[in-house]
Amino acid sequence: MKIEKIVEKFYQGLAEHKLYGRKCKECGAIEYPPRYACNTCGYHETEWVELSGKGKFHSMILPSTLNADPWNASLGTYGYGLIELEEGVMFNATVFGISKKKAKKLRPLLPLPVHPLFVEKDGVTVVFFELDEVEEG
């Protein structure tokens, strides 16, 4: 598959199990998923930076009839929610390791630590997240 030059670094990073964002040269804000202009200050110059991938899972929505994904389900139990990486960027993502039963126990413990889960899908490496091991109360 041919990848456009403008996003090539991002997808190469995923293939190497690395996350890349864009850092503003003016204010230092980081964009993930990467964008070529800063959403914080509007400055037009950004540069690639590698992100840790370590973060916190802040909210939890379980799949239902309208948003369930059979391909995701083939990998295991999952949910959706807001992720905040150590670098401060926030975005919605799929998080594996969440069953309906487990969700009831985990919701009061939010935010929970997560790490990236890199998976091959349709010939491209994509990133999801996975719960770190958590002591359930």
UniProtKB/TrEMBL annotation:
<dbReference type="InterPro" id="IPR022002">
    <property type="entry name" value="ChsH2_Znr"/>
</dbReference>
<protein>
    <submittedName>
        <fullName>Putative OB-fold protein</fullName>
    </submittedName>
</protein>
<dbReference type="Pfam" id="PF12172">
    <property type="entry name" value="zf-ChsH2"/>
</dbReference>
<dbReference type="InterPro" id="IPR012340">
    <property type="entry name" value="NA-bd_OB-fold"/>
</dbReference>
<feature type="domain" description="ChsH2 rubredoxin-like zinc ribbon">
    <location>
        <begin position="12"/>
        <end position="42"/>
    </location>
</feature>
<dbReference type="InterPro" id="IPR052513">
    <property type="entry name" value="Thioester_dehydratase-like"/>
</dbReference>
